[in-house]
Design brief:
Length: about 170
Amino acid sequence: MGIHRLNHAVLYVSDLARSVAFYRDVLGFRPVEMTPDGFRGAAFLQAPDSTNDHDLGLFEVGAAAGRSTAGRGTVGLYHLAWEVDTLDELAATAERLAAAGALVGTSDHGTTKSLYGQDPDGLEFEVVWLIPADLLDEAALSARKRIGRLDLDRERQRYGGQTRGGVGISVPA
């Protein structure tokens, strides 16, 4: 089985309208009109620069549903990671997540620079920029074995805010 990419994820949410608003307003996803006729409690969204039919399906289970406890009290998916093209875009995403009270952490994984957020139901996700293959050096490669503090300003000075990430790694050159 040759996997090329993650096509979409489906999440159970407690309040559909609240979740659609979060993914639309904070992360820029746009609703896609594809909910089957007569089907209620679902929404489908596409990421801003995606070529997928949809990237996210949301299914409402109701207000009585508790927040996710995956990894703390139950097994389950820890997070999905969405890749952005530039460090400037990662920085802008960090500002939007922080303004929404949804930024829960940042990390420097050597070859990747990451933000961690939570949606209104406590479902965690990662937004990541990857160092392009032609800029990888021994320091970045060896740093994959640790989790460091992310300094976005330093990374933008080092790699440039508009340098496309992932080229030669996750995006064919």
